[in-house]
Protein: PKD domain-containing protein
Amino acid sequence: MNEEEDDMLELLDDEELIAESAQDQAQKHTEESTDDSFDDELELDDTEEEPAIDKNVQEQVKEPEPAKEKEGLEIDIRYLIVAAVAIAAILVAAILFVLPAFSDKAPDVIINPSQTGEDLFLYHAGGAPLSEEFLTVQVNGAAASSDKYMLMGGGSWPWSSGTVLRVDTSGYTKPAVVTLLYKPKSTEYTVYTTTVQPVSTPTPLPMITPDQQAPPQNTSPVTPPPASQQPASPEVPLQPVPQTPAQTQVPIVAPVTMGGVSMDVQPVSGAAPLTVQCNDLSTGCIRNRVWNFGDGTTTMKRSPTHVYPFPGAYNISLDVRFCDPEDDSVPQTRQVTVAPSLRQDTIIQGTGKAQISADAKLFFTVKGPGTNIRIAGRDHYLNAGDHVELILGSGGNGDLTVVSNAVLNCNYGNVTMVVNGEEVETGTVSVINIDQYLQFETADLTIKAIAGRDGAKGLVGGQPVVNAAPGQQIIFSNVGLDSYGKLLFSVQDAAGFTFRGGVGSYEVSTLSM
Structure:
C-alpha cells in the first residue's frame, strides 16, 4: 500500500512540473510578444513565434513524414513524358529515313528524242537521274542487250540532265517501238516510249516558181455539191454561199533547210480558221527544239498541228539545239497567211429542236483584266492578252451569246478550256464573263435544226430564202459572227429556237422516213 501511494505522489509531482513548465513558457511568450509589439508594431502579425514546447511534449508530438505516394506519382509522370518523347522521336525518324527507303514511285524525267539513221538519241532534258541497274531498254517489246545502248560523250551512269543516251535499233523490224522501263523497287514503271521510223532515202521536192502551177493536193477541202443535187423540198430552193477561193487550192512549198535544221509547214495560206501541220525534219543528235507560231504560242513537239483562228500573216520559226553546240544554227522561219472567212448574215427562228455540233470551237483574245470563266465549279481568272479556246466536246442546245465584243453566255457541258496553248479545265461552263475581247472566231461550228409544227423561216444575206416546213432539217455550216459582231443561239422547249450570226453555207432538206 505504501508503494502505490508513493507512485501516485510521484505522478502528481510530474503533472505539477509539466503544468508549471507550460505556464512559465506561456508567460515568457506573452512577455516576448509584448516587447516585439513595441519594437515593430507593423510586423506584429508576421513575426509571431511559436510557443516553446518541452522536450517531453516534442517527443509526444512528431511531425508527419512526407507522403511517399505523391513523390512516386511525380516520378511516374516524368517517366511517361520521357517515354512519349522517345516514341515521337522514333516515329519521326521512321518517317524521314526508314519509309523513304521503302517508297516506290515513278521517276519524273523529261526526254527529247531525235533519230539519225537507225540510231535513236534520247536527250535527258531534266528531272530525276536514272541508274543503269534499274533501267531496261526494250525494242519491240524485248529487252535490248547492254551493248545496244550507251551514254554519249563517254559519260558515266546515272543518266542525268544534259546527257544523251544512244540506242542502236539496227537489226529490229521498223517501225521499232523503243520503251524505257525503270524498276527502283518492286514496281516497274514505263518512263518513256517512242517509235523509230524506217530509214529511207528522201526524194528532193522541186521548188515552186511563180510560172509553175502547183499540182492539186488530195487533202484540199471538198467543195459541197451544187444545191440541185441535194434533197430538198420543191418549194424551198437552196441558196449556197460561195466558197472562199483560198479554200479550194493550197500551194505546196518545199521544206526549208539550212545547216542541220529542216522544217516543213503545210499549208501556208487559207481562210480562217486555218489548220497548219508543222514537221521538224532535222537530223542528228537533237537535245531540244522549240516551235514559235508567231501568235504568242510555242511548243516543243516534233510535229505539231496548229490552228490560226484569226486572219493575218504569221511567221512560224523552228529553233533546234543539237548535242554538239557547233551544229547549232539560227532559227528557220516560214510565213503563213490567213484570210478572212466569208460568211453571210443570217437570222432564223421557229418551233422545233436545234443544237450545236460536237467539238465546235470558240477562240478569243482577252482585252482587259477582271474576266473569268467558271468551269467545273472553279473560277479561272484571265489576263489581258490571254488566248482562250473553248472546245464544246458534246455540243448541245445551250445558250450562246456573243455581242458588243463580249462573250456573255456559253452554257454547255463537257467543255475543255485551253489558255495560251495549255489545257486548263474540262467540265460544265456555268459562268462566263468576258466583258471585252480583242478578236473572236469559231471553227467547226455547225447548227442543225428540225422545224416543228409551225415550221421555221429566216433571212440569209437579207433575203427571205429559208422557209422550212414542219419536219424538215436545216443545217448551217461555218457559223460565226455576222457583220455586226453578233452570234446568238438559244433554244427554249416551249418557244422553239432562235439564231443570229454569220454562216458560210446552209441547206434545207427533208429527212428520210
